[in-house]
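If you are new to this repository, start here. Below is one unmodified record pulled from the training split, so you can see the exact layout before writing a loader.
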Amino acid sequence: MKIGFSKYIIALSVIIAGCGNPTKKGEIDIPRPKEIAKVAALPKIIKTPIGNPNSKEKELLGKLLFYDPILSGGKDIACASCHHPATGYAEFLDLSIGANGQGLGSKRAFKEPNEIPQMKRNSPTILNTAYNGIRGKDDYDPENAPMFWDDRVKSLEKQALEPIKTLEEMKGVHFLQSQILTEVAARLESIPEYKNLFAEAFGEDAPIDSIHIGMAIASFERTLVANNSRFDQYMAGDVNAISHSEKEGLELFKSVGCINCHNGPMFSDYKLHVLGVPENKKVPEPDSGFQESFAFRTASLRNLRFTAPYMHNGAFQNLKQVLEFYEDISFGKTRNPSVSKEMFDPFVKELQLSVKDMSLIISFLNTLNDENFDKEIPEMVPSGLPVGGNIQ
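And here is the target side for that same chain:
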């Protein structure tokens, strides 16, 4: 009897250990044993990869690259075009407009004529992406940090290169995907100021290539932190940092089930979940997310003031609409014809949201905003192109 029971425990342990990370097409987060989810303040120290420690030289180079449209195929869009400090390093559009776009934030639109497809996803903020993947106070690995709504790459170093290679974002129609990174490196090599900046950041013998471009941009992005919200101050011991009603909202946030997925210092479990968010009608085909499973990564709830509209496709204009959506799906109501209630994440059934709770929860969520982040914009970039691309 004891031997048989031991085998059962071992088998069960193997099954549980295999849960939590999607491995095959259509496989998403399998129900896990009930955990006591917690929230926490963000740490003040930022971890960096062993192979890419931050330095002032890398941060300066990365900042200039972030604002320089020379990284785009048509030399018209920079990282900052869709991730600008004036819009909290996010964008006030439901779906982003990259190549062949003009304007900033909600005023950005395609120039005519246009042959660039509409992007199918909303631009998340870059603020605090240095902490991506964090679960506990210091429990995260910057070399394996999850990125994008579908978790398709790991680390800020790799994330920084993806928009440059993507047609709708920065590449445009001028180059093939296989050509663009080599083209961008050659452009930078031809500019004496960039040659000096790369040498200062990485050494005289280091080549100007996609690897070092990604490392420099990632180094700058790790400086974009907003880790002193009123909630962080409250967790550090200042009991008056948040009001009584905001504290009530925190308790409701926990008790109604929001904390099941929105937990840890970033208020995200960094897992993929199926919720059946309604499709954005601007996108001609349904966005099926991670490996066509309609799963998307849990978004952080920090700095929500700057990240509306919400969800992976900007489906909801405000937080009340978001909470109403969660109330609907908790009762099994689907708003996406491609996603049945049987496909919903198991945590959906544990939600106990009601209209009377929503204002207090929203009040609490506002304590996660922190406007004290780097808003300084370079006066010029080494290429001589417009800073931030065509945003005027």
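Two things worth knowing about this chain: The longest helix spans residues 2-17. The chain has 13 helices and six strands.
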